[in-house]
Design a protein that fits this description.
Shape: elongated
Distance between the termini: 46 Å
Number of domains: 2
Radius of gyration: 22 Å
Number of helices: 7
Strand order of the largest sheet: 1-2-3-4
Largest sheet: 4 strands, antiparallel
Order of helices and strands: HEEEEHEEHHHHEEH
């Protein structure tokens, strides 16, 4: 049986784990396993059902991410009400996060919080070189790294390849967090890089300046090293 949600943005097409009693359990106690309804809302997986005498809906990281952990939870008089209440909690959480983002004076872009960066990095598919660059830059701190050192840290032979990969990591994070990527500050940087950091002071005409991660991203990456 297919059930539908009262919230328009909730996708019920991923209903799985319908309540089926396992033979061994059925033989032992004749009890039926409660059904768990699984759906999606934005970038989260929603699970709902009847638990300990009440209807509960919970949000988790959406597969295929390897991240685990409860994102949000809500209850209701019915399962549909619990789901609707959870979606309100999630949307309010997203709106709060967006409103609290710091504006970077160099690019004019809104910089996500450490919490947002941590969640994004835990769920998006960053390559090993991309993670290596972020780790190296986080350890470099406010001094940052030259393009050559950043490329070396990630195993790239070409600085151009490293910069494209760096920008790609920024696009993945920005897409996950629904953040803007087009910078108003610099026209000579690849789209996606400004969500990660900024250029330091250039030493000469041939030196564009070191790459420096935003403090929020730096703290997020360091916490996972």
């Amino acid at each position: 049986m297919t059930r539908s949600s009262t919230a328009g943005s909730y996708d019920m097409s991923h209903e799985v784990f319908k309540g089926k009693s396992k033979k061994k359990t059925k033989e032992r106690n004749k009890e039926k396993v409660p059904a768990v309804l699984v759906g999606e809302h934005g970038r989260y997986q929603i699970k709902s059902g009847y638990l300990a005498g009440e209807f509960v809906a919970r949000a988790f990281p959406k597969p295929p991410t390897q991240a685990r952990g409860l994102i949000a939870e809500a209850r209701g008089a019915t399962e549909e009400a619990a789901i609707a209440n959870l979606l309100e909690v999630i949307d309010a959480r997203e709106n709060r996060r967006t409103a609290e983002r710091r504006t970077d004076p160099r690019s004019g872009l809104a910089v996500p919080s450490t919490e947002e960066y941590r969640e994004a990095i835990g769920q998006i598919a960053l390559s090993r070189p991309q993670r290596a660059m972020l780790a190296a830059l986080s350890l470099a701190g406010e001094d940052g790294m030259t393009d050559a050192r950043m490329a070396y840290a990630a195993g790239y032979k070409s600085q151009a390849s490293a910069n494209r990969s760096f920008a790609g990591a920024g696009m993945l994070i920005a897409n996950y967090l629904s953040a803007e990527t087009v910078s108003n500050g610099y026209s000579n940087v690849l789209e996606g890089t400004s969500i990660l950091g900024f250029r330091g002071v250039a030493r000469n005409e041939e030196d564009p300046g070191n790459w420096i991660l935003h403090p929020e991203l730096r703290a997020s990456v360091r916490s996972g090293i």
